[in-house]
Amino acid sequence: MTNRIAFQGEPGAYSHEACRNARPNMEALPCRTFEDTIEAVRAGEADLAMLPVENSTYGRVADIHSLLPKSGLHIIEEAFVRVHINLLGLPGTKVTDIQHAMSHTVLLGQCKSFLQKHGIHRITGADTAGSARHVSQAADRSLAALASPLAGEIYGLNLLAEHIEDNSNNTTRFLIMSPESDTSRRGADGMITTFVFQVRNIPAALYKAMGGFATNGVNMTKLESYMVDGSFTATQFYADIEGHPDDPNVELALDELNYFTTNVEILGVYPADPGRK
C-alpha cells in the first residue's frame, strides 16, 4: 500500500481539494492527465484515483465516461466539492491593486460579475492551480489568480476576495476509483450503482431496456450516451441508479436490461454521498 491517492492537475487544483476532503490521511499524487491518473493506480504508484465526472454548471467532464470502462478500476465512493472561487494575489496586495486575473477559462467565465465590477481584465491560464503558481512566481502586483483556497495556501498567496463565483451552487462530483471492487452495503444515505451498456440493434431497444427500471420503481439519476471508438452506429450508455444490485427491484430491472442490451458492465456499487442532497 502506498497510502497515495492520484488526481489530475497541479497541487492546489479542485481535484486536490477533493482528495484532501475525502482522504485527509492519504498523500495526494498530482498527475498530468486523466489517463496518467488511472495508470498511477494500475501501476501501483497510488492506491486510489480521484476523478471528476460532472459539474452542476457545465455538465459531464469530457472523456471521463469513455475512460472508466477501460480503466480496470472500480468506483468505491463519490465525493462532492463546492467550487468556491477566490481572488488570490501577492502578499500585501489589495483588490484595488489588481488589473488582471488569470485562471482556467471555465473559472474566468464563472466570475464575470465580480471582475466587471472591479474593472479586472481576464487572462486565460492552463488551469487554476497553475495560474496560482504563476502569480506566486511573478513580481507583478497587478496580477491575481482565480483558484481554490488550497492553491493560495500552497503557493503563499493572499486571499483578496472569497466566494466570488456568480453561481453559488456550482458543485463538482468526483468518483473515487480502486483496483478492487467493494459491493458491501455501507453509508447512511443508500447505495448507488453505476454501469455502462450498449443496446441491441432492434427497434425501440433503449425504450424497452429502460422500461424495467420504471416498472420496478428504480430511480435512474443519470443516463448519458457517447460514441464508441468514434463510430456513429455504436453508442454506449452510462447510467447511475439508486439501489444495490441485490435489491429485488434492482435485480429485476437489471435482468430486463440484459435482455435488450449487450456488454452490460457494472463500474461500481457505492454509498450515496450526503452531498447529493
UniProtKB/TrEMBL annotation:
SUPFAM superfamilies assigned: ACT-like (SSF55021), Periplasmic binding protein-like II (SSF53850)
Enzyme Commission number(s) of this protein: 4.2.1.51
Pathway named in the protein's UniProt entry: Amino-acid biosynthesis; L-phenylalanine biosynthesis; phenylpyruvate from prephenate: step 1/1
A GO MF term: prephenate dehydratase activity
The keyword Amino-acid biosynthesis is assigned to this record: yes
Catalytic activity: prephenate + H(+) = 3-phenylpyruvate + CO2 + H2O
Keyword Lyase listed: yes
Protein origin, superkingdom: Bacteria
Official protein name in the record: prephenate dehydratase
Native source species: Sedimentitalea todarodis
